[in-house]
Amino acid sequence: DYGLGIIVNHRSVRADGRQGRIKRGVETRIEVDVLIEYAATTAGDDGKTLHAGMRPFVPGSGDLAVRKVVTVKLENLRELTAVMINSAAKKDLNRKEPRDSLMRTVAEARRRNPEGLPLLKPREDMEVPEAEISPLLQQQVELRERLNNLSVKDMEEEAKARAFANFELKQKMQLQLRAVKREINSAQSLVMQDDLKRMRKVLRRLGHADNDDVIQLKGRVACEINSADELVATELMFNGVFASLTEEQLAGLVACLCFAEKRTEEDARLSPTLAGPFQQLQEAARQVGTVCADCGVELEVEAFVEKFNPEMMEVLYAWASGCKFVDLCKLTDAYEGTIIRLIRREEELLRQLSSASYAIGNMELRDKFDRVSTKIKRDIVFAAAYIFRASASASTSASASAYA
Question: Residue 394: is it exposed, middle or buried by C-beta count within 10 angstroms (0-12/13-18/19+)?
Answer without folding.
Answer: exposed
